[in-house]
Design brief:
about 15% strand; 2 domains; 7 strands; single chain; binds S-adenosylmethionine; binds zinc ion; Rossmann fold; DNA polymerase, domain 1; about 325 residues; alpha/beta
Amino acid sequence: MTPEYRHNPVMLKEVLASYEFRDGSVVCDCTLGGAGHSLAMAEKILPQGVLVGIDQDDLALEVAGKRIAEAYPSLKSFQLKGNFSQIDELLSSVPLAGVDFFLFDLGVSSPQFDIPERGFSYREEAPLDMRMDPGKQTLTAQEVIETYNVADLTRIIRDYGEEKFANKIAKLLVERRLTNPVKTTFDLVDVIKAAIPARERRSGGHPAKKTFQALRIEVNHELEVLESALVQALRWLNPKGRIAVISYHSLEDRIVKQTFKEYTKGCTCPPDMPVCTCGNTPTIKVITNKPLVPQASELEENPRARSAKLRIAEKL
Ligand SMILES: C[S@@+](CC[C@H](N)C(=O)[O-])C[C@H]1O[C@@H](n2cnc3c(N)ncnc32)[C@H](O)[C@@H]1O
Ligand SMILES: [Zn+2]
């Protein structure tokens, strides 16, 4: 375990500007991490505000809990361990009537990447794990690689990694595993490098980046849990409350965009219906028609912010 838990909060200025935080606001940070965003929001809701932080990672919760307690000892705050797809259950466990502001800052935090044993990093030799909550999850990246067929591996690496050579990588993985188990991050990097033509390997980032992202999404069911979490969060939001979501790849961003769109629609009756029978009315309005992206100055300081997109919606 790394002794320090460092993570620069992405698009912090934009997040702070996305809602009129005031004394007494109830804030729920669904991806607490190192509490970078949470600490900044906490300052704005004192002394009556409530700060709820959710994370499925034990180390993040421990570090964030200490930081919040040290910085704002009088603040009413709760740190809840669990997957944000269980917002209903988690929020029901604390005395809250509703939430004024939800934040999702998706993905993995820098420290999770930096702890080699977690298996998230293609730069460190480690078992292929990638579970965000190893205590609860059983499926590991190694199991995906050892048991999925070529078609499924191709689909995952192509769809979740947007990798052009998905099929080549999938085929080579299945071929290799017959003779040599692909057990570690470096075993996997070797296969990826062998599957991607040398000319292509020289352009762009690390050749393994996309495949590693794809496996992480599969292992943690990241897309399914996101949609379910957004739907629950929208229900908990107080009128005029806002939800802000920072995503890091296009599939996540599309889920955020489409879920928001769904809730801005009113009636879903067929167009030839003379009167409305569904009774549906819009429940939110979208504040960002186009997602906000980090400023150039932030990108210079924090390359992790590169692919970030921020979408905001307001409950009616
Ligand atoms: C990018 S980090 C958040 C960093 C944080 N905003 C900060 O400034 O320190 C994402 C965090 O969300 C957590 N996380 C990701 N998916 C989750 C999920 N489905 N349920 C609960 N926590 C999740 C990760 O464990 C990680 O700590
Ligand atoms: Zn209708």
